[in-house]
Each structure stands twice: as C-alpha cells, then as structure tokens.
Amino acid sequence: MAQPRTVAELAEFLGGVVQGDGAVLISGLAALENAGPESLTFLANPKYASKVAETSAGAVLMAPGGDRYGRTTIEVSNPYLGFAKLLTLFYTSPHEPAGVLPGAIVSDTAVIGTGVSIYPGACVGRNAVIGDRTVVYSGAVIYDNVTIGEDCTVHANAVIRERCRLGNRCIIQPGAVIGSDGFGYAPDGSGYYPIPQIGIVVLEDDVEIGANSCVDRAAIEVTRIRRGTKIDNLVQIAHNCQIGEDCMIVSQVGISGSTKIGNHVTLAGQVGIAGHITIGDNVLVGGQSGVTGSLPANAAYSGSPTIPHREWLKYSMVLPRLPELKKTVSTLEKRIAELEKSNLICQEK
Which one from 155, 239, 276, 309 is the annotated catalytic residue? Predict the structure, then answer.
C-alpha cells in the first residue's frame, strides 16, 4: 500500500477541490459505513447522501454542490472514477519482473521482451512473441506464433491459441480461451463434417477478457475485439464477430457468429444475440434480453425479442395483470354476446 497522503495531495492528484481541512492525513480507502478517521470514502449515489453525516471517515470524495454535513471533502465531477483512481494509487504497484522462472516451458524460438515474467508451469510455443513487461502466470498456455504486446497480463490457466494477436495492456483472466475453434460444421448426410477454423482472434489495446470466457477464432479471417472493450466472466463470443471500442459485455452474454457490434455498446448480463446482425453505436441492451435482429444506434432495448426499453417497461407493467385482464375480457365478451342476443330478439319482435 502507498504511503499516507494529505487530502490536499489527493485532491491535486485527482484535479479536485478541497472543502475543509486539506491537511488531514489519509492512509487508505473504505466504504461509508466502515471508514475510520484515516480513511477516505466516497459518495457516488446522491440517495446515500445522509450517510455522509454518519461516517467516521477523515474525508469524503463527492460531487460538487452536495451537503457536506461539516465533513472535509474532495469535490470531483465523477466520484466513482476518482475513487477507482485512488484505489490504484494506494493499493496497486508495478509488477516486479521475475524473468523466466524454473519450471516454465519456453520455446527456443520464442521472442521474449525485457522485464517479462513467466511463471512455473506456463508454456510458450514456437515463434511466439511476448512484449516488454508482460506477465504470464502458471498454467497459462501460449500456442505457436502468438503475438502478445507490452504490459499484458495472462493469468493462470488461460489459453491463447496459434497465431492470435494481443495488443498492449491486455488482461486475460484465469481460464479464458482466446482463439478456440469456431462452432462450424457442414451437414454430411446424417452427420456433420467439421469446417476447419483457419482464422485468428485479434484483441486490440486495453482489452480485458474475463475468467472462463471464450473468444472463438474466425473461420477464415479475423474475430476482432477493438480497443478498450471489457468482457466479463463466462461470456461466449463466436467466430467472425466484430466488437467495437469501449464496449462493456457483462457475464453470461452469448454472441453468435458474424455479428457486428458498434462502439460503446453495453450488453447486460445473460443477453443472447443472434448471428449475422449489426448493433449500432451507443446501444444498451437490458439483462436477459434476446436480440434477434439488428438494432439502430443510440438507443436502449430490452426484452425477448428486444423492443425499445420504454416500451418494454410498459409491457412489464401489464404482464403481471394478464390473468386479471383475461378474466375481464372474457366477462365483457359474455356480456356483449348477451346484449347482441337480446337486441336480435327485440328486432325479431
């Protein structure tokens, strides 16, 4: 953990403004409820503002204009982001290079950069290229002809298959598989003939792949995850997909083959996406939605099949009342039938 710092120093680091005593010494970070006099906490959601009055924190990170309740504060436009940066400052440090440790298996033809760490039980194949300061943990397998950029982290038991390419500062969490075969088969009578998947996966700079997620190699060309996209645990991305920049793809999402996803798209948990469709920039898809067709940009969608989110909210309000509405409709139908019968009798008379 980093050395203690004053509130004023932390405000300068974040580009924030101190309200109160800038000389208060901060040695760590904590939640509002658990923070002590030497801790800094944060308020990201205004509905918890009253807890600022109750916290024992030495200082509070918050947005400008809120009630300080007499506390020392650092005001920043995005407290949540500020808190994340301070967590990095206090609790993370650069990885100390360890070199190729005994028990690691590294091909004689692999090209290993400076400051690299390869731990026991890791395997690096022929003609692989590992960039400077990259860390490969135990049990990770780097196949032949893989290229990994600088400052990457490949965690335990991750697999990066042949010829796939990673940019700089990529993070591959434990058990993730990059470049597994796409699910491609040609019907062959009563069986199926496997189609060789000869393409690759390319992860651009600053991409993170969560634990036990799979990104399939393309059938012929490239499955590509563009710069800055973050993929949660247990996500499946099929062959030939193109994922844009700065997307957030949450756990248990499944994306079928040859789908194109724009920039800054958020797919909430358990979203399922059909193949060969396009999702525009800045789209948000709500949890457990089923996307069966292309979605225009700059909108939010929910449901299965997906509809605009506002319409889905109305639909969701009606859904629990369907049994009651069905009963009402049946009663009305019966009354209308009786009235029509009565009217017909009157006409006959």
Answer: 239
